[in-house]
Write the structure tokens for this entry.
Amino acid sequence: MELYNLSHWHVLAVDDEPDSLEVLTEVLEMNGANVRAALGGQEALNAIQDYRPTLIITDLSMPGIDGYALLRKIRAAEAVAKTPVIALTAHAMMGDKEMIIGAGFDGYITKPLRIDTLIGKIFENVPSLKPS
């Protein structure tokens, strides 16, 4: 597995499943990213009050504030409105990707997470984040 120097990244990782959130956080930190983990949409909204991520990765299916509602609130918050947001989901049926991108997400990564391909998938979804 190739490691990258992502020390300039500040990532808000959002998932209501602690195990999934831990894997996501560990892979990002292994590559040097500064990660703030949020267990659900409300924690994520609280985090963006004082944390300015360069990337947000969020699960879609969460109780309370799901990924779609979170995206709408992020896009309405001036300080983080232009931050790339990648959906993380187990929904991988035909048409799901188009629906997710159509909702305004910058990208789409399916679960289960694969530690060997996660960073590459992020680069595919948001090419501007790839180190030169």
Remarks:
- The helical segments are 18-30, 41-47, 67-76, 96-102, 118-125.
